[in-house]
Amino acid sequence: MKKYENYVSNLTVLSSARNEDLSNEFIISGIIDKFFIQFELGWKLLKQLLQYEGNAQAAAGSPRAIIKAAYSIYDFIDEEVWLTMLNARNDMTHIYDGQAAKQIVNNILEEYIPAFEALKHDLERLYGERLQEE
After folding, report:
1. Deepest in the core among 38, 64, 94, 106, taking most CB within 10 A?
2. Cα–Cα distance between 108 and 56 in angstroms, integer?
3. Cβ atoms 132, 1 nearer than 8 A
4. Which residues contact 11 (CB under 8 A, 6 or more apart)?
5. What's the CATH fold of domain 2-132?
6. CA 48, CA 3: separation in Å to the nearest integer?
7. Cα–Cα distance between 13 and 16 in angstroms, integer?
8. Tens-digit pLDDT profile for residues 89-100
9. How far is CA 76 from the centre of its chain?
């Protein structure tokens, strides 16, 4: 599944953010950009899996609807964290303050990356090799 492969590939890069110089403005910006991409990959992967499961709500298309539908099917998804990520993603275009950017990076490192990693692990447990199929 190409969406899953892209999700895992980007997550590998984003997870390395823990080892970066967080005082560097370019690093902070890069982490935020990678988070944005990871979130997009995440909700679109969930949408594809909902379609695979035959869930009619997958046709809705909006990230919020997909997250809510996924939460109702997959007991391992933390709806609150994913909706918080959605809000953070939506608010990012309005961040001009360096302190606010650092706070978002802290949230990415402490909450969002672990949620992305948990989703990867739980999907692998649930779907196994089917994730590798096209």
Report:
1. 38
2. 31
3. yes
4. 38, 113, 116, 117, 120
5. Four Helix Bundle (Hemerythrin (Met), subunit A) (1.20.120)
6. 8
7. 5
8. 887 766 667 788
9. 14
The amino acid at 42: G
Angle separating helix axes 2-15 and 113-127, nearest 10 degrees: 140
* Predicted structure pTM score: 0.92
In the block, tokens 């997909």 appear at 66
What letter represents residue 124's amino acid?
Answer: E
pLDDT confidence bin for 108, thresholds 50/70/90: very high
**71 C-beta neighbours (distance < 10 Å), count:** 17
DSSP letters for 44-101: HHHHHHHHHTT-GGGGG--HHHHHHHHHHH-TT--HHHHHHHHHHHHHGGG---HHHH
Task: Flag whether pLDDT at 82 surpasses 90.
Answer: yes
